[in-house]
Amino acid sequence: MDRLLGRSTLRRHLTLAVLGMLVVVVVLESTGPFRNAQFASMAYYGIAGAGLTILIGLNGQISLGHGAFMAIGAYTAALMLQGGDPLPLPVILLAAALVTLVAGAVVGVAAARLHGPYLAGATLALAVAVPGIPVYFSGTLGGEQGLNVRVPDIPPWFADAVFFVTGQDMSRSRYLGYLGWFCLVVTFVLLANLARGRVGRTWRAVRDNEVAAELAGIDLGRARVLAFVVSATCAGLAGGLLALSARIAAPSGFTLTLSLLLLSAIVLGGLGTLTGALIGAAMLTFVPQLVTGLGQDLGLTDVRAAELAPLTYGLVTMLVVLFAPAGIVGGIRAAAARRRAVKTSGTSKEARKDEAMDEIRGVTGDRHPGGGVRRG
């Protein structure tokens, strides 16, 4: 495996990214429009969750307002798609990320002096306040109804390339799935390299011991602001993809519930790990639909079946917190570590037993085949 991935961190991450995109191609081409739309949703949840797990898991800052940053990215993309001849989608998504970067820098500088519950309270206020801005500027941002988002036509070169590889025509939902997962893979590669490099070590140092980090020459404020900016940029990109997938940017889609769901997703998957963020995004995407369908099969009405989804998600969160405090990924890693420890302990016992037998042989001597004894 090491030969395949290589020793270089960047080469390893790029190899995993290529393998991941091959899996994405197989999955998207073998599923229908509904599943394609679900995988697109999983992509933007994964991007937002990855940014949040970097902020909380690596840097130790608690944020309850990432739904607000997703709203900034979504409305930026929606406004840029209102014209008759919009810019290419990669440019629009980049603009959504950059606008949110600026907003994240402003909030990050203001929140750099806050810690723990004070920072959580400040970001909570942000999550509550931002959805009210479109209502106040209803003439530009559409008010309660929001802005309708028209997805541009699929680029001919992309449709031709996919048809050449797969032999299937490109649909709009599949195109958004490809776009979302490409953004997710690029984001994960960048974040993984940041986390494994000097910046990531700085964030961990600030999280683990602020006094020691400051004595080591680390600028605590700069480290916190950088983590906040990176996390907000990811949320802005995710918001732009959400607007494209939902085809609307409305205040009702960016309430406090969204911020809390993102937080619970990374806690479920495993705080501080990108794999955990992806697992949490999958749970956010597929658990509600799965539980609702199960409730309907059991004879419940549509309303009651829909109410089962948050109940089930809450119960799963409670169970994971009780039995796997480090999340699903953390629980798997802990189980693997215990298995290795037991195996190592068993090997050590066998080694000690062999050493004891050698000592006994050295004292009593080894018997010859003829029955005599040779003294050591």
UniProtKB/TrEMBL annotation:
Transmembrane feature ranges: 12-30, 42-58, 64-84, 91-112, 118-137, 175-195, 225-246, 258-291, 311-336
Organism name: Actinophytocola gossypii
Pfam families in alphabetical order: BPD_transp_2 (PF02653)
The keyword Membrane is assigned to this record: yes
The protein's name: Branched-chain amino acid ABC transporter permease
Source taxonomy: Bacteria, Bacillati, Actinomycetota, Actinomycetes, Pseudonocardiales
Biased composition (Basic and acidic residues): 349-369
Compartments, record wording: Cell membrane
UniProt KW keywords: Cell membrane, Membrane, Transmembrane, Transmembrane helix
Membrane topology annotation: Multi-pass membrane protein
Residue segments, region Disordered: 343-376
